[in-house]
Amino acid sequence: MLVILSAGFAPGLALLSYFYLRDEFESEPVSFIIKTFMYGAILTFPLMFLQYVLQAEAVVSSPWIHAYFSAGLLEEFFKWFILFFAVFQHVEFNDPYDGIVYGASVSLGFATVENILYLVAHGVEFAIGRALLPVSAHALFGVVMGYYLGKAKFAGNNMKMRSIFISFFLPFLLHGTYDFILGSGKNWIFYMIPFMLFLWWTGLRKIKSAHRLTTSHYDQNIDKKISI
């Protein structure tokens, strides 16, 4: 059991540490990161129950519905809901890059519990594949979601609403596409590899863009202090 727990936690903690250490400005308090991670972890259980009910009642009747509704819409909406209502207005969310840290934290909390439950049910031999695919994918969905929420928090009113909408819609679309590829048949891996490369390319671009936004944010604050 200790091996399964270690294998289940390791990829989530490694990815979260990576995004945390990429913060080139003011590091976020570890206590609040752990709290957001736990939000995502707790979210796993009601979501899994809801998905089970939908499947048992035959609401999920096609690969499209499963991928884009049961997985993409439900999971990304609830993660977005937590980020928007529990983190977005928090005092510690004080620069654009913070959105990436907290977005990854919530997503990885969810992915870590899901990963442990899967390994308990199917065996530790799936640990590497799970780390490379679902855990990494959840982290990158969180990066994209957090990037646009970070952008929204420090944008004007018109751009704010647009960025808030994208912060939910784009991760939902990416997540749904991921699950649809996963269930597309025996050749799914040939579609998944380019999709994951695209996902990592997108995530790393968002990190660089968030760094630029954060630099601009701090420069503006310095200019305001000087002018005062």
Describe this structure in words.
With 228 residues, the protein is mostly helical. It has one domain (2-227). 83% of the residues lie in helices and 0% in strands. It contains 7 helices and no strands. It is globular, with a radius of gyration of 18 Å.
Helix content: over 70%
Q: Mean pLDDT score, rounded?
A: 91
Task: Please tell me what the overall shape is.
Answer: globular
Q: How many β-strand stretches?
A: 0
Question: What is the CA-based Rg, rounded?
Answer: 18 Å
In terms of DSSP E residues, the strand content is under 5%
End-to-end CA span: 60 Å
Q: List the domain count as a whole number.
A: 1
User: How do the SSEs run, as a string of H and E?
Assistant: HHHHHHH
Spans of at least 5 consecutive residues with low confidence: none
Largest beta-sheet characterization: none
User: Given the helix and strand composition, which structural class is it?
Assistant: mainly alpha
Number of helices: 7
Question: Which descriptors apply to this entry?
Answer:
single chain; 228 residues; mainly alpha; 7 helices; globular; protease; transmembrane; transmembrane helix; cell membrane; Protease PrsW
Task: Explain briefly what this protein structure is.
This protein has helices at about 1-20, 30-55, 65-85, 100-120, 125-155, 155-180, 190-225. It is mainly alpha-helical and about 230 residues long.
